[in-house]
């Protein structure tokens, strides 16, 4: 009884989003599915690098996979609020499952080719363009505003626990049984999240259609809404920088493992897990302090520390130090992203939320094609260590420019307010 009581108090105090039955179904399904997703991620990266031996071609897969998010996420934001988000998620998760089964079949039968992987990556990205903003804006329908930051932090904790477990299992599966099993198990894992979604009864928000409003006008209104709010605008710009140059681990870590550390699959899995361990610690920390709400100071400090740790990764070739720096990077990634996500959702009106989160998706995940392409070219030309330094340095410079510009804008606004009074 004491153990049960302690568990209940822990949930009430630090993981209070789990007190919502709908969220528990959603969260438990994600716990299973995300492990499979990370198994597929590292399986795909290692398969491409083994088939081609080219960091550039590996970066091109990432570019193709995230290009649809860049192209379609803005349109997705104007569409998904017009339908129940639960329905949209059931469609996207089923499509993810089918793609995983197809890729596993191609590898099992020995018919997989680089071109096929590019096509599959593009289809995966197209589904993601609708799935990502839908999942982001679905959280508030299952937990409400009060527990939103805690739900975002728990989602991050789940994602990064999967980042630890998934690569570890995936690396073992690749080493002993082959990459095809990573893709097959990923396909099976979607059964859990689909079952969870079927049990959920959310407080759905469906935006009413307005007369004479086209898709492009709605997209423009979303951008103008952000531009008029300095907090939203500053947050979106910082996300754009870190999303483009700070999150290219899928390209750089496998190349760094092979060409700088001279290691193989198991070490690659360990390094990806180190990134996940740090992220998990960050997510736990955010869950504990979630009742205090998101903080701009954590966004800014997280962005700067991500930049510094990226540069540190490029300036060393020691395995344990690489693992430590990746763990620290993972921790700062979560401090940054959970505070950005919650800041945007809590400071956005309901009728704009999906559009704002689709723009967030565009700059966070949709910027990945540019980032992956840049990282792949830099790794080809300067090595993975040089690419880490280049990405970190660009982050430092661009973050400083954004903060300097908005400091001047804030100063001008304060002067205008003083004159008006």
TrEMBL record:
Per the record, membrane topology reads: Multi-pass membrane protein
Task: State the Pfam families in the record.
Answer: MFS_3
Instruction: Tell me where the transmembrane regions lie.
Output: 56-76, 175-198, 236-256, 268-288, 295-312, 318-336, 357-375, 387-406
Q: Which organism is it from?
A: Paenibacillus thalictri
The UniProt entry, under PANTHER family, shows: INTEGRAL MEMBRANE EFFLUX PROTEIN-RELATED, STAPHYLOFERRIN A TRANSPORTER
Q: What is the lineage of its organism?
A: Bacteria, Bacillati, Bacillota, Bacilli, Bacillales
Instruction: Tell me the compartments it is located in.
Output: Cell membrane
Give all residue intervals belonging to the Major facilitator superfamily (MFS) profile domain: 1-410
Q: Which GO terms describe its cellular component?
A: plasma membrane
- Single GO molecular-function term? transmembrane transporter activity
Q: What is the protein name stated in its UniProt record?
A: MFS transporter
UniProt keyword annotations, A-Z: Cell membrane, Membrane, Transmembrane, Transmembrane helix, Transport
